[in-house]
């Protein structure tokens, strides 16, 4: 989908076909990503949560994403690394480290969704956070947060003291 932004900041679709819910969510994700790029850094879990909610809340299966950051917490890339089923997603440390090195990242914000709409982190979520934090530390990458998205609600594991 291609959006056109006019001088007043209004967006419209480049073609005359109908706009779907997926088109709207993709447009919201694009707008939030552009805001991140303009902000340069992620200043709070709420900024991260807003972007990640737009990116993950509508999915009907679990996906595990990572926001890669440089030393000043500026966004380098946002990557969907793993896709799962309606109630789980396998995450592999080896692939996460490979991606961190590919992007030359200094820090990361982990994120995944719960299609059930319940954002409360499970024991498995806490475990993979610890595992990834330890693995990424070996290559000098800090894990700043792990955000769980459940519908329009998010939970920051960092805010709960689990990162």
From TrEMBL:
Domain MPN, first and last residues per copy: 41-163
Entry keywords, A to Z: Hydrolase, Metal-binding, Metalloprotease, Protease, Zinc
Protein name: DNA repair protein RadC
Domain of life (superkingdom): Bacteria
Organism: Pseudolysobacter antarcticus
The UniProt record lists the keyword Acyltransferase: no
GO molecular function, one term: metallopeptidase activity
Family annotation (PANTHER family): DNA REPAIR PROTEIN RADC, UPF0758 PROTEIN YEES-RELATED
Gene: radC
GO biological process terms held by the UniProt record: proteolysis
Lineage: Bacteria, Pseudomonadati, Pseudomonadota, Gammaproteobacteria, Lysobacterales
CDD domains: MPN_DUF2466
Keyword match Zinc: yes
């Amino acid at each position: 989908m291609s959006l056109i932004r006019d001088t007043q900041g209004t967006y419209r679709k480049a073609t005359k076909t109908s706009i779907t819910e997926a088109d709207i969510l993709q447009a919201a994700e694009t707008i939030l990503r552009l805001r991140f790029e303009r902000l340069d850094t992620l200043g709070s879990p709420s900024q991260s949560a807003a972007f990640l909610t737009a990116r993950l809340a509508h999915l009907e299966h679990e996906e595990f994403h990572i926001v890669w950051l440089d030393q000043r917490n500026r966004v380098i890339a946002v990557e969907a690394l793993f896709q799962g089923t309606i109630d789980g997603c396998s995450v592999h440390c080896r692939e996460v480290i490979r991606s961190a090195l590919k992007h030359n990242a200094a820090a990361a914000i982990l994120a995944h969704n719960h299609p059930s709409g319940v954002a409360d982190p499970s024991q498995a979520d806490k475990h993979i956070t610890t595992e990834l934090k330890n693995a990424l530390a070996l290559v000098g990458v800090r894990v700043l947060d792990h955000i769980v998205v459940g519908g329009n609600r998010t939970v920051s594991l960092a805010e709960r003291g689990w990162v």
